[in-house]
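ok trying again, last paste got cut off:
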Amino acid sequence: MSENERVTVIKGRDVTLPSSLKMTEDPFAGQYGDSVTEPPYSLDFLAQLMEHSNVLSQCVSAMETNIDGFGFRLVPIGKADPENDGEYTKEADEERRRVENFFKYCNPDLPYAQIRRRTRRDLESTGNGYWEIIRDAEGGISWIEHVESHTMRLTPLDRRPTEVKVRIRDDEENLYREETYPKRFRRFVQIRNGAKVYFKEFGDPRAVDSATGRVLGEGEMNGADGGNTVPATEILHFKIYSPQSQYGVPRWIGNLLAALGSRQAEEVNYEYFENNTVPPLALLVSGKLGDNTVKRIQDFVDDHMRGRKGFHKMLVVEASPSYEAMPGAPVPKVAIQFQPLSDAQQKDALFDNYDKTNREKIRSSFRLPPIYVGLTSDYTRATAHESRGIAEEQVFSPEREDHDFVINRVLFPVMGVRFWEYKSQAPDTTDIDVMSQALDVFCRCGLTVREAREEIGRLLNRTLTVPEEINADYLDLPLSVYLERLRAGARQTEEADDGGGGEGKPVEKAADRAELFLRSLEGIQKSLGEGGCDGDSCAHAD
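nice, full thing came through this time. structure:
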């Protein structure tokens, strides 16, 4: 039996009831002070409460899925090389493959998507999330490990700053330059099964002893102990900011009492079924009870009235006249009356409105529409679409941007990534019909093939690859011009083949297609106007 369960004994039967009030003992108890900073709330209790609440888990799952559940893509920082048929340079392609390979194999046991989701669950549960960053012998990032947030504690910041070199990317030259920055670091400590391990903050250039957390001097790592000192690895700390604490605080902490109250209400309702003592009927007897009747009633209540099976049990009571009649007098009657007690029985769940209000409070702390936690009875397609758009704009997208910032500004400079940016992908909440109409107007107004493909790729949530056999210069043509060239080329091909007496065949080679495009350009410009678009519908006709 786990520590967070208690046993209620009911007439010789053990009924195990989960309890949400019992806090597990803090493994750091007695160690807080100058060396370890105490969190404002019990992290073990916050993590445990997630499994006991009737709404917290749904809210956290919605945040986890919609923020971190759609993967990521690499977005080029610079444009494609026009001298290389619109493709990226060899160096950029090699860097993209290297970055993709890193995230694919950044952990030997877990996929990167699972690491993100677990970190998000920790972040929403306790307000803190941790990655252990493991470097190779050359100082590059080799592995990422997820560390459970309830096992980690912070040490105070160093009193003196440490000079650290920060890599800053120059957008114009697409190169990194190093600048010196004074920063006060801290250590992190974890206790698991009685063992204590120290970590250093990500970017701390100093050597730290993982057993004591002490900063080591030069050459001390291989000191007199024979080189048995294990250097501390680095921790990347994610948190939901709180101005009152060095730790993060979960966004629902203001409704902590609501979560506890709902749990207590559910426990009361659960215990009602196991401890029901109000029978549906009472048998009232006017007379004298038989021998041992009181004991039989008590045994019946204890053995048959508790639990679900006792709801339709009936108690039979024997009775006799309370006195003996005089000779010749009428025999005294025994009156037996059934008295229904259904009005005294609980008809429905106790505290139902209270629990419903609490769940609304907790959900509002995440700013989630009801549809994200399974409440969809009063939703229409229009309201569901609007709710998705608001949640994506106000809740999920800002959280993704915060995560992307850490990857692009903290990890990528260390990895030397120059040509690509990390971008978390999002679900498509665009109205396809509206976007299709807008694209049609934009294409007539001069939207290029490349721009149209980017918008279509965004709608489809995928990257559209450029066919290798087609010359890339067509990508920068207005889409309307490109389509008209295709039509003109097909017409000329058909006429040429018919003139030779053969069957019409499509043009297969890119060179032939390009030649037909150029020959038909003059007629296309006349049909579309000098501006390359329909003058009646284009804002750029002037």
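cool. The chain has three domains: 5-262, 277-344, 432-528. The chain has 13 helices and 16 strands.
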